[in-house]
What we know:
23% of the residues lie in helices and 28% in strands. Strand 67 (1110-1114) and strand 68 form a beta hairpin. The two termini are 78 Å apart.
Amino acid sequence: MKNVILISLVTMLLSLTSNAQSPLSCQMQESQDANRYFNGNCGSGTNGEWETYSHLNTYIPDLDPDEPMHNAKLMNINININIIQKDDGTGNFPNNQETIDRLKTMISNINSFYANYGPSDPISWVNELPNFDSKIRFTLGEPGNERIYFYQNTAAWDDMYVSTTIEPFIAQNYPERLEQLNVYIFGNPNNNNWMHASMPSWSNFNKTSWVVIFYWSNPGSDWATAGLLAHEFGHNLDMLHTYTGGGASAICDPQNDDFLQDVFLVEPPNTSNCPHTGSWGDDPYIVNGDRITNNLLGGTQSSKYISPMQAGQMHRSLAITSIRKYVTCEKSEIPLVIEGEQFWDFDIKLYRDLIINPNSELTINCHVVLHPDANIVVKPGGKLIIDGGIIGTDIYETQPWQGIQVWGDKTAHQFPDANGNYQQGYLELKNGATIENAIVAVDLWKPDDYSATGGIVHADGAIFRNNAKSVHALHYKNFNPYDPTQEFDYNSHFKNCIFEITNDYSGDEIFYKHVDLAYVKGVNFQSCDFSLAENVTGVSPWNHAIAGYDAKFGVKAFCNSLQYPCPEESYDRCTFTGFWSAISAVNDGGIPLTFSVNRADFINNAYGVRTTDMNNASVLFSDFEVGNYNGCGTGIYTDQVTGFAFEENEFNKYAGGPVSNYFGIAINNSAAVNEVYKNSFNGLSYANFSDGINWNLTYINEGLAYYCNNNSNNFADFFVADYDIHHHSGIQSNQGDENYVAANTFTTSGATWHFYNGGEYQVNYYTDPNNTIATPEYIWNVKLMFTEAENTCPSHYGGGSSLNLVLTSQQKISAEQVYLDNLTDYNSTKALYDSYIDGGNTAEVKLDIQTSQPGDMWALRAQLLGDSPHLSLEVLKAAADKTDVLTESALFDILAANPDELKRDTLISYLENKEEPLPDYMIDLLKQLAGGTTYKTALQQQMAGYKHTYSRAAHDIIRGILNDTVTDNNELRNWLDNLGGITSDRQIISSYVSEGNFNDAFTLANMLPSLYDLKGNDSIEHLYYIDMLSMHQTLYQQGRNTFQLDSAEKADISYIANNSKGIAGAQAKSILEAVYNEYCAVCPDVEGSAGYKSATTINPDVLGKIYGLDVQVKPNPANQWAEFYYTLPDKVTTGSITIRNTSGSIIEVIEVSGKQGQKLWDTRNIASGTYLYTINSAGYSKTGKVVVSK
């Protein structure tokens, strides 16, 4: 058992004069109620390494050049000198240069005592420190900026203890001055010629250290005072006296680990002269061995010597006591290497790298403090387990440390052997393990060595706090140990972890992202919380929680219930708060993969999910409280993305956001069949926003559709951006069809637009005229098509559905059958459709028009009317140009007979702007006729319906393949080929690139212009795409990647990013963003402030939830009855539940009372269908749905 001195040492200094010094005596009390096995609030057991790391011999400087702990750098202890004067500035040293110079000289003398004084009574067997240097110094700061402070405070001037007046005063007014060891010089009205100092704490690392001196006037006493101050500094550094009496007595028990053998053991093994004696005036040099020595902790006026073991005591204190926080030094170049197994259950500071060698394991369950330049390295085959421990920097350190590097082996897999050992470095974080204040907390490779990727981390209940980057994983493919051609997911995961940047972030390194993933597959985050505090210094405006670059990852919730299916309230969801882009997922075309988000909460992020060229993404059952940055905020933003599933999410404006534009889902250039399905939008500027080509390049009736979405309190519920001659814009021309209504609901009051279509062709919107809430009123370029068809809006992934992202074998078989049936119907209908288009031969009809003569007018008119309404756009343009044959009236008849093509503003604009334009009145009539339906319309609707159904089935299969833990590129390519289209072909090309198969990649890429008739700007964009593909080939052939581009290649990428408006530009921007942290503004383009939403718009459902309002209904679906379980807001006891049908008609109102309760609803006479219920109480409300099924 070792005792800790818990209260001050008192050193008597009597009658100091310039010529003679009086004897030294000590008055001191000890407390023996604490033991050093309690270290840093950690109970250190005897089965760990505490005996080694708490022993002073471990730290003796230069004892063994091969042992890292004996190789200390020069330790500089930062000190302040505080001079307390009377209120009028008298009674102590004056504030002038002479005082400063005297004090600087004293500190210089103290440093010489710690540097080069040998023993007066040498012991023959002792190997002294080289040059007698303890490698400890004290510093007042930079010359000219010494930390010497003056205070005018009479109450403190007449004090004797720091805790009474002066330290509380400094803590309140100058707290930064407590970040150094403080020397206080009080006044001396009672001639108290003594000093006292604090001992360091082994458990309270916040404890301040100090020395108290009383004013002396005679400069001749400076040398003696310096010696005594050096003595007190020794106590600050955990050293005891070499004599007994008065406190801090020498330890004379040879069995005690702190017995100073090199001070007291005159002759081994047991001839000891402990304790020493000696008075102030004694000369220690007269007799060797008389117990009167010049030891710094002795009692003579010559006390200057520090023994090796005393130096070990001090360096130990700088590792495991509270004094360590005042130290600055260089990092030792000799690392501490762990061999075998070690268990650290103690608090320690390291001034060097820590390395865990192969086949070795270190477990930390306390606190390890690292030097700012230090790393922890886990080599392949090594294990680091942080079990509740904390790894970070010291209390007052402003510089981050380097972080944990988990080295891997790119050629090895990530699976354990039979004994649980890995070929990669392995890091496990659990039970509140914390990594803080690091540049890269967990770096899963050996930086700059791409052969050493693949490090493993398993984190469960870990905390990542104030790291410039928390997790970094890149360029590694895991594989089946028995079949290296079979790729598996990356073996790392994070569950119930916290990633946070707080207001305490130092800002020395710019924070860009918590998680940085590049070219890895399958890192999952379950029930994790990501946050960024507001207005933190050192944070990039382009910050992220998770940034994936050609990376597959998953964001998931954990169910805390055994009930199946899991009740929604039992999910522990991931949260993302305060970021520019909470989740960013970008792709450069080098590999086809995806990401998924399921049940996450996005709070006050400018972008919740932002993705570029990451196809087949899924965002499900998530809540978005959309924030704002620089005038823009978007829940989900996509560019060049197809195959997505954005379903059953809720979008609201963040209640505290500024007045600005807020978007729910913004989709740019999806260029294929896609759906936005069953989401809810409230209080937004533009709930659903689309821009660019959001249709199949060949057929405008196949593209982006919006089904079953609910809207309230929005400026615009659906908004298709305006197009112009240089900019495409549009969505699928038919939203629904005669047999399938779109089933969106619209803002009931306050909306400017229910459906604004600024695209280049008209949209036909199918709705039930009897359902007013689902019928848009404020529309532009939208034709309402009325039908009484139903759409029950079933949940694809929730409710009664058992569908998951990765399909079961039976689900996959069912999806394949749905695909096959609808593809067959689609092809049959398309064959019929194509046989009608231009009479089955477009080229021949165009030739007939081009070769016709004026006398052929009636015959040509009859021929074209005979092929109507199935004439193509290009035939109608050719007819419009044949003004020498077809009169305006004849052309008008032909155009009017083809209303489906008139829906394209492309044709109308052509007619308005051609060399001989049609009269305005004819143009106006044709615009009115564009809303008509024909047999061609019916065929297009059928084709679109079949296309959506088989595309949804194919997308389900493709998402299943991409989200599976095993990647099968051959199956992926087969299904992308089944799906068809240029976006699918580009994904197939990416799959070849990922395998290094550039022959097949270029073969297919070179076919795209002919397959998809790429002309004009499209052909230019294709050349950019080929340039990107060539870059990938060059890097592959040279064994490089995009993190290793030269300056010329970087310039090429920047050029493509700035000039390409298509897929190549998106891929180039992905590289600039992921590799160089160069970002492009991607705010959806809207004009003016008409859609601004103010901070006063608050979702009543959200506000009600805050104040305790809640309601649930069971069973749901209901048959004969349903029961509402309600909770009213605090201090409220009355309310009502209003039940409406989907048309908005009130079915029943149920009054409720009491803080909580249940109300039964009789549904025996209620028709089957979906009903909306709203509980209202004290001005708050919450709305839900209940289904009656009989």
